[in-house]
Amino acid sequence: MTSIETSSPPTQVAQPSVLRRSLVLMKPITWFGPMWAFLCGAVASGATTWSLADIGLVILGIIMAGPILCGFSQVINDYFDRDIDAVNEPYRLVPSGLVSTKQIFVTLFVLLVAGLFVSSFLNLRVMSFVIAGQVLAVLYSAPPVRAKRNGWAGNAMAAVSYEGLAWMAGHAAFAPLTGPSILIALLYSLGAHGIMSINDYKSIDGDKEGGVSTIPVLYGPKVASWLIVITMNVAQIVVIGAFLYWNLWWAALIITLILMAQIPIQRTFLRDPMANYLKFSAIGVSFYVWGMMAAAVGLRSVGG
To answer: Cα separation of 299 and 43, whole Å?
Structure first.
């Protein structure tokens, strides 16, 4: 899931190395979501073991989902967000001119090739999800589509890429996909649609100026907070219902308890979204992703 980026203006005007600049562009803080989703998908497949071979494949897939593919999407987004970032965060590498266009495109090329290579090593099913994710990353950030200009369409693309495709790639790396696994991946993608909007609170003014209609821009911070919480909760409630349907009461109970644990921080967020969105991102989203793992473990007991 996408975490909130909390970068602040540098206190020293130091020139970072070329490799460090590329790493900063790839935003390591954002890698956790797809890495975790890939791991959940691998667990949900029911085909993973504690063998060194399987552990190695899981680690390879996690690296592919996080540093490589999420990094690819972040570099593209930073490049096409350079005008908006010049308003919101002018000290970033791209708007500040500390990274060249050549380095940006070299970084993108290396990550693109690395993603295709690693996914082809896993299997062709995984490669198909990787290609789909790379296409969505371009459509999300780049003109003429630039889906991120609309909070509903942009968040849907990002949520499916970060959660759904990563989960399904993790599952497909070890076994053919099953209907229940696809369903749970899509439901957690729905919840992630709400989570994506949390990140937009930090850039409301710049988004308005740049014509980016995020959910907080479209409806204001207060209404947006309710849409975020409702979306996250509806997704988790349907997941609980699915496990009850499959007679996996223990999984449904665990996910229910995880959902209930989110309620206090959700109430704090709803009272004052602008003051509490960072806290909600750190605490509320953490519980959400633990629910994903509980669902993944539960899916090991569900047939196709």
So the answer is: 8
Instruction: Quote the CA–CA distance of 32 and 27 in Å, as a whole number.
Output: 10
Residues 227, 283 contacting (CB under 8 angstroms): no
| Amino acid sitting at position 181 | S
* Contact criterion met (CB below 8 Å) for 278 and 6: yes
Buried b (16+ CB within 10 A) or exposed e, 80-91: bbbebbbebbee
Please name which of 265, 287, 285 lies closest in space to residue 275, comparing C-alpha atoms: 265
pTM, 2 dp = 0.91
Alpha helices in the chain (DSSP H): 18-26, 32-44, 52-63, 71-80, 82-88, 93-96, 101-122, 124-141, 151-159, 166-172, 179-198, 204-210, 215-245, 249-271, 273-299
Q: 274: burial class by Cβ within 10 Å (0-12, 13-18, 19+)?
A: middle
Q: What is the pLDDT along the chain (304 residues), one digit of tens a residue?
A: 544 444 445 444 456 688 888 999 999 999 999 999 999 999 999 999 999 999 999 999 999 999 999 999 999 998 998 877 777 777 778 888 888 889 999 999 999 999 999 999 999 999 999 999 999 999 999 999 999 999 999 999 999 999 999 999 999 999 999 999 999 999 999 999 999 999 899 889 888 887 889 999 999 999 999 999 999 999 999 999 999 999 999 999 999 999 999 999 999 999 999 999 999 999 999 999 999 999 999 999 886 6
Q: Is the CB of residue 8 less than 8 Å from the CB of residue 285?
A: no
Strand partners, 150: 213
